[in-house]
Design a protein that fits this description.
The structure is a single chain. By secondary structure, the protein is mostly helical. The radius of gyration is 36 Å and the shape is rod-shaped.
Length: about 80
């Protein structure tokens, strides 16, 4: 019986190694996909934070522009009518 088992193993050795290699490859693929998903989540959080910062900066810039327009308008009103 032992000799029959050894013959079977020799006969199926290539298929056994291919199945083992496939299993190892699938485990590594799963690990890579989990790593990629974590990186995507991190990038999405960073993108949200960047969008929030840009929105706040834009609001500040708009307020500054409003103040500048009001100042320019006051200066023009003080200088009197435009001369031709």
């Amino acid at each position: 019986m032992g000799e029959n088992l050894m013959d079977s193993i020799r006969e199926w050795w290539g298929a056994i190694m291919a199945a083992t290699g496939l299993g190892i490859w699938l485990v590594r693929l799963e690990g890579s996909s989990k790593t990629a998903l974590r990186e995507i989540a991190r990038l999405e959080k960073q993108l949200d934070a960047d969008r929030q910062a840009i929105s706040e900066t834009r609001k500040e810039q708009n307020e500054m522009l409003r103040e500048m327009r009001a100042d320019i308008k006051r200066l023009l009103e003080r200088s009197g009518p435009a001369r031709d």
